[in-house]
Amino acid sequence: MGFSYRRRRSRGRSGPERFQGYHANYRHRGFDRDSTDPRAANRENPYGARPSNRGGRQQRSWSHGDVETVRKLGLPIRPDATSGSNAWTWFKVTIPSANEMGKNFIIDNLSRAIEVEFAPYCFAISSDGRATFYVQGADQASALQVMNKRITFQEGFKMIILLRQSESPPLKIDEAAVALMEAAVRRRWCPASLQLNLSNFAGDDVLKAEGIYMSLCRPNVFQRMLSIIEEKIPQVEILDLSDNRLAKLDLLGEVELHSLKRLNLAGNQVKNESELEAIRSLKLVEINLEKNPVCNQWKDREKYISAVRKRFPKLKVLDSNELPAPIGTAIDEEETVLPARQPGSVQDESVNRVLSSFVAEFFQYFDSHDRQPLLNAYHDNAIFTYSYFANTEKQSKQGKFDKYAADCRNLVPANGP
Predict the structure, then answer these.
(1) For residue 378, which of 36, 223, 239, 382 is within the disulfide window of CB 3.0 to 4.6 Å?
(2) Sheet of 162-165, strands arranged across
(3) CA 291, CA 240: separation in Å to the nearest integer?
(4) Which tens digits make up the pLDDT trace of 20-76?
(5) How far is residue 374's CA from residue 376's CA, in Å, rounded to a whole number?
(6) How far, in Å, CA of 216 to CA of 224, rounded?
(7) With contact defined as beta carbons under 8 Å apart, do 114 and 106 qualify?
(8) Residue 83 and residue 4: Cα distance in Å, rounded?
(9) What is the dihedral of CA 183, 185, 191, 193, to 10 degrees?
(10) 280: closest CA among 303, 304, 301, 309?
(11) Distances (CA, A) of 19 to 12, 13, 25, 217
(12) Which of 84-98, 184-198, 215-229 has the lowest mean pLDDT?
């Protein structure tokens, strides 16, 4: 039994060309030891941090410093992060064996150790002894990562600090949370000017000191806050909701705040014109929409003013600028003065009661959708009468109504002395 050997054809390439192709493939597969290639350096060091390919084009919209900080932490860059969004800057911190250290020991030592402001949210120690909390911003996360295994506890144990990117801290609206919200409303309420300042509510100093992250951009928090306002201070005239990252305003349009006249929504994330439609029930004379994406929909300021005024006809101030008086003949309902009520002219009280009862019941049915009950107000032998007026100037067009003139009951003035 023999074997045949068949030589592979070079397909027109000479030996040096084939060698160059193999060399290019050799480099492409990562075997080139070029020290300028960071991937090559990582391959030579099997214990080094692996570079992440996740994130793609989105990372171009981030600041260079933030991206480098996240990379130094060895964390993947979230692909859903976009420019101007703080969702990716939240980090969840885990410290094992924290039940032996205690909350005060951990917070006090970390506060003294890191150089940036330390603001932990939702600190908790689970049943397995792990402490978890959240920090916002890559600067805090980087500072905490540097302190990993650098703080010594009893018997030489080192504090281990683990970090990972996370969403914003969870929040359950229980009785304690509602009490904190009501206390914040009392602090921020000015009864003299009837103004409630809820600007940047998530950064409230008292809530921050308690380690509670309460952002109004969360629907459950915003809904509960509006309920507190509607219940406790319905007389509010000025409401400041600026810098709260609000994107939806439908909840604001559902509350009954009849006294609200001025609304500040600057610095939020309102993107669609439909959100203004959701709050058109508010009788506003002033609104501020600066630094909202929805403002970019109109390049012409006159069209922008017209679109906003379409929802709020009584608007006088837009984005801190006084508006010219609108052109039109609309009458302001609040400025309409009704005539004074006059006493009745019927002297007999019994007759007056009958007439008053009849008129009230008559117009109750007359103004309703079903006028059928009005038949009870007429006698069975009642006669329908009508009047007819002939316009002599347009007699040719009204000739078809001449047949009604015979039964007309028009009053004819008598020619008397």
Answers:
(1) 382
(2) 121-125, 131-136, 90-95, 162-165
(3) 14
(4) 443 444 333 333 334 344 444 444 344 344 444 444 433 333 444 455 555 555 554
(5) 5
(6) 9
(7) no
(8) 65
(9) 150
(10) 309
(11) 13, 10, 10, 62
(12) 84-98
Q: What is the pTM of this model?
A: 0.54
**Phi, psi for residue 80 in degrees, rounded to 5:** -90, 5
Q: How far apart are CA 365 and CA 373, in angstroms?
A: 7
| pLDDT recorded at residue 68 | 56
Q: Which two tokens mark 318?
A: 């837009």
- How does pLDDT run across 237-269, given as a tens digit for each residue? 999 999 999 999 999 988 989 999 999 999 999
What is the 3-class SS of the chain, one letter each residue? CCCCCCCCCCCCCCHHHHHHHHHHHHHHCCCCCCCCCHHHHHHHCCCCCCCCCCCHHHHHHCCHHHHHHHHHCCCCCCCCCCCCCCHHHEEEEEECCHHHHCHHHHHHHHHHHCCCCCCCEEEEECCCCCEEEEEECHHHHHHHHHCCCCCECHHHCECCCEEEECCCCCCCCCHHHHHHHHHHHHHHEECCCCEEECCCHHHCHHHHHCCCCCCCCCHHHHHHHHHHHHHHCCCCCEEECCCCCCCCCHHHHHCCCCCCCEEECCCCCCCCCHHHHHCCCCCCCEEECCCCHHHHHCCCHHHHHHHHHHHCCCCCEECCEECCCCCCCCCCHHHCCCCCCCCCCCCCHHHHHHHHHHHHHHHHHHCCCCCHHHHHHCCCCCCCCCCCCCCHHHCCCCHHHHHHHHHCCCCCCCCCC
Asked whether the beta carbons of 96 and 125 are under 8 A apart, the reply is no
- Say which residues have a Cβ less than 8 Å from residue 161's Cβ, sequence separation at least 6: 93, 94, 95, 144, 145, 147, 148, 149
Closest CA to 43 of 21, 25, 27, 64: 27
Interacting residues of 67 by C-beta distance below 8 A, sequence separation 6+ = 59, 77
CA distance 261 to 337: 21
Q: What span, in angstroms and rounded, lies between the C-alpha atoms of 160 and 151?
A: 8
Rounded alpha-carbon distances, angstroms, from residue 342 to 339, 353, 364: 9, 16, 21
Distance CA 112, CA 317 (A): 48
